[in-house]
Specification:
Helix content: 25-40%
Shape: globular
Radius of gyration: 20 Å
Strand content: 5-15%
Number of strands: 10
Length: 295
């Protein structure tokens, strides 16, 4: 059996798996790349990095690969280094990969993700023409320039640039234009609540005064967490708002009695990060939800 570490780094080699061959070709062109699993999702963090137990190192705040040898931290794993892409630590991910993604911000690009025909029609009437890439339900409009990423800037429109990833769907057509002010103006800050997380680790809330759990069965909590994960996964736009409201609902039902564990919080954060939310956004939304409820 041929092992991934035996493969040459030349993307033209027929011995390479198709997705790794594509990744090496894109990396050679300067696009930081990473594997995606089924469902257009990044591979989960290793045990060392789960819930940023590694300390959310400073390198995660800028473009560049995660220091962990495995493809951790979603967009943070994206790299142009063929030594990393073909390393033993990435072998299992490439064997399971369903697609290749790239970090637009790491290549000084911004992707306007138009998720349906209405969004595409709006872009054609509103935004300067640029390179376009057909997607399953709409189009990616790719501009030259970097900005803050944000989901749900308007119905069916997400911005993917710094600290985000976009699925590679081909080179597209047209000439890439410079990032216009009309796209930058789409990003609006979230409503602020009194408390903001500035550093540290988010933990599940403790029971108030050692109170007893009012739930009759652990199945009630499990069902609630599963429904919350599904609600986030099903969101087609306004992901950040959906995540915040879902966190608020979970804390309203389960936060006061102390049933929530760090594992439950991790599941909610994982669901949100799979839809493009950054860890910092998840932590901030969780803290804001607790503050809103007086926890």
């Amino acid at each position: 059996m041929t092992h991934l570490t035996d493969f040459p780094r030349d993307h033209r080699s027929p011995a390479l798996p198709a997705h790794l061959r594509t990744a090496l070709q894109l990396a050679e062109q300067g696009l930081p790349v990473m594997p995606l699993r089924e469902g257009k999702l990044p591979f989960g963090n290793c045990r060392t990095c789960t819930r940023s137990a590694c300390g959310d190192r400073p390198h995660m705040l800028a473009a560049g690969p995660c220091a962990c040898p495995a493809p951790c931290h979603a967009w943070g794993a994206a790299t142009t280094d063929p030594n990393i892409l073909t390393s033993p630590a990435w072998a299992a991910a490439w064997r399971q990969a369903a697609a290749v993604a790239y970090h637009p911000g790491g290549a000084a690009l911004t992707v306007v993700d138009l998720d349906n025909p209405d969004a595409v029609a709006w872009a054609r009437q509103t935004l300067p023409a640029t390179k376009t890439v057909p997607t399953t339900r709409g189009e990616h409009w790719v501009y030259l320039g970097t900005m803050t990423s944000h989901n749900g800037v308007r119905p069916g429109v997400d911005i993917k640039s710094a600290r985000s990833y976009a699925r590679w769907l081909g080179p597209g057509i047209g000439t890439m234009a410079h990032l216009p002010d009309a796209v930058r103006a789409l990003v609006v800050k979230e409503p602020a609540f009194p408390a903001r997380l500035t550093a540290g680790t988010v933990a599940a809330p403790s029971a108030r005064g050692g109170g007893q759990c009012p739930h009759r069965s652990p199945a009630y909590l499990e069902r609630g967490i599963a429904m919350a994960e599904q609600r986030i996964a099903d969101a087609t736009s306004a992901i950040h708002t959906t995540a915040y409201r879902t966190f608020l609902a979970v804390l309203s039902a389960h936060g006061a009695c102390g049933c929530l564990t760090d594992d439950h919080v991790d599941r909610l954060f994982t669901a949100a990060q799979a839809r493009g939310e950054s860890l910092r956004h998840c932590e901030t939304a969780w803290t804001n939800a607790r503050t809103k409820l007086g926890m």
